[in-house]
Design brief:
The chain has 13 helices and 15 strands. The protein folds into two domains: 206 residues, Chloramphenicol Acetyltransferase, CATH 3.30.559.10; 220 residues, Chloramphenicol Acetyltransferase. By secondary structure, the chain is an alpha+beta fold. The protein has a seven-stranded mixed sheet, sandwiched between helices. About 4% of the residues have low confidence. The protein is globular. It holds the Pfam family Transferase. InterPro entries: CAT-like_dom_sf. GO terms for molecular function: acyltransferase activity.
């Protein structure tokens, strides 16, 4: 049953860098990929139960209150923003090529909810989770202007706390968000004697362009999730292992965890649309395109640092013609082939014109909604968000499920034990009902089970 309680915001504050940004850093140049990033926010929610024995705020012989924790978070956030000064700035327009680093600050919300954290874990509700990541929804069309970063600390009746972070996709991808959180954590830990520094400079590799010259800017746009619903599926480690064996072939002898899960989710969605009344006829004659977000950093000729902040992700597109099989082995082989082609593309120095052309090609495909059935996927698996410790232990659960606002979209994260994968899927209602009853899928995944 969905929890009827709502999150109540009790305080709203602007947090600024603890030291003024030097004048020579007042204009931060966006990269080409920053400019072409979606007009949306990238959310993450971290849940911290009370009384975690792994806390690192040693020397305290009593429990910190919610007020003390939030004060600690705000102080250390202010210190962290000294290094991440662009996040405290503003992008003044959709066509801007710079961030004005004016120290306007980031938004910090303190909130409470009249339920226990265990109520959230028992049967996670997407509608409620969205209330834990600040006032700017991921689909907000103004995500690139105003505050670029929002933080919300929500206190539960049980004494636990959820920390929701929502950052504009114009300034950060998932890897950049991780870099920011790692640095913030080190400021939080009183015994820490080192810092985790970001590296800026993506614009030097991929300089911005004048978007105003386009009558219709080539910005990634997926289609609004009107009349769509989101469902959560959890694959346990043992079931993923069985799925990897099931989807193996001579072409791909050992699929990765993500490849195997992705293939089954994609297959289930396509099968559902093939028999749903409003899609069947059109889908049978249209190619299917599966676009996966891929981190560029480790794939260039000279791998880029993992703490390189900005948008360094690109879409890996896999096309399935309307006469091709949706067999798992076929889908895994096509996904692997697309990734191998992607690796070849970036096996040299980044070329601005080639990247620009590739982005525009993908945009053209996405705009042809009547010619292609497009599915989008973002996998955060293997990103160590479960190591984010603000001083009172590691999170019991990390989720980006509120990221889903577009139709046919998929997001994936590791389960708390690190072996499984949580999948959130957003589809049209009729298709989702068919997916939720798909016995092939349910043989490997549980539909919205308890977090633990």
């Amino acid at each position: 049953m969905a929890i009827e309680k709502k999150v109540q915001v009790i305080r709203r504050e602007t947090i600024k860098p603890s030291s003024p940004t030097p004048h020579h850093l007042s204009a931060f140049k966006l990269s080409l990929l920053d400019q072409l990033a979606p007009d949306m926010n990238v959310p993450l929610i971290l849940f911290y139960p009370l009384n975690d024995s792994n806390g690192v705020l040693h020397g305290l012989d009593r429990l910190l209150t919610f007020a003390e924790k939030t004060q600690h978070l705000k102080k250390t956030l202010s210190q962290t923003l000294n290094k991440f000064y662009p996040f405290a700035g503003r992008i003044t327009s959709r066509f801007a090529s710079v961030i004005e680093c004016n120290d306007d600050g980031v938004e910090f919300l303190e909130a409470k909810i009249d339920c226990s954290m265990s109520n959230i874990f028992e049967k996670p509700d997407i509608w409620l989770l969205k209330q834990l990541v600040g006032v700017a929804e991921p689909e907000c069309q103004e995500a690139g202007v105003g505050h670029l970063l929002l933080v919300q600390a929500t206190f539960f009746q049980c004494g636990g706390m959820a920390i929701g972070v929502s950052i504009s996709h114009k300034v950060a991808d998932a890897a950049s968000l991780l870099t920011f959180l790692k640095s913030w954590c080190l400021h939080c830990c009183v015994e820490n004697d080192h810092e985790y520094h970001p590296e800026f400079g993506v614009a030097s590799l991929l300089p911005p362009i004048d978007l105003a010259i386009y009558s219709d800017p080539p910005i990634f746009k997926m289609f609004p999730g009107e009349k769509c619903i989101t469902s959560r599926f959890v694959f346990e480690a043992k079931n993923i292992d069985a799925l990897q064996r099931r989807s193996a072939s001579e072409t791909v002898k050992r699929p990765t965890r993500v490849e195997a899960v992705t293939a089954l989710i994609w297959k289930s969605a396509m099968d559902a649309y093939m028999i749903s009344s409003n899609k069947a006829t059109s889908l049978r004659r249209r190619p299917r395109v599966f676009a996966q977000a891929a981190n560029i950093r480790p794939r260039t000729a000279n791998p880029l640092p993992e703490n390189f902040v900005g948008n360094l992700m690109a879409g890996v597109s896999t096309m399935l013609n309307n006469n091709e099989s949706t067999d798992l082995q076929v889908l895994v082989a096509k996904l692997r082939a697309s990734l191998e082609d992607f690796k070849k593309y970036f096996a040299k120095e980044l070329d601005v014109e080639e990247v620009k052309q590739a982005v525009e090609d993908i945009c053209r495909i996405m705009k042809k909604d009547d010619e292609f059935e497009i599915f989008g996927c973002s996998s955060w698996c293997r990103f160590p968000f479960y190591d984010i410790n603000f001083g009172w232990g590691k999170p019991a659960w990390a989720t980006n499920s509120s990221l889903l606002v577009f139709k046919n979209s998929i997001v994936m994260m590791d389960t708390p034990d690190g072996g499984g994968i949580e999948v959130c899927l957003n589809l049209e209602e009729e298709a989702m009902a068919l997916v939720e009853s798909n016995q092939e899928l349910l043989a490997f995944a549980a539909l919205n089970p308890s977090v633990f």
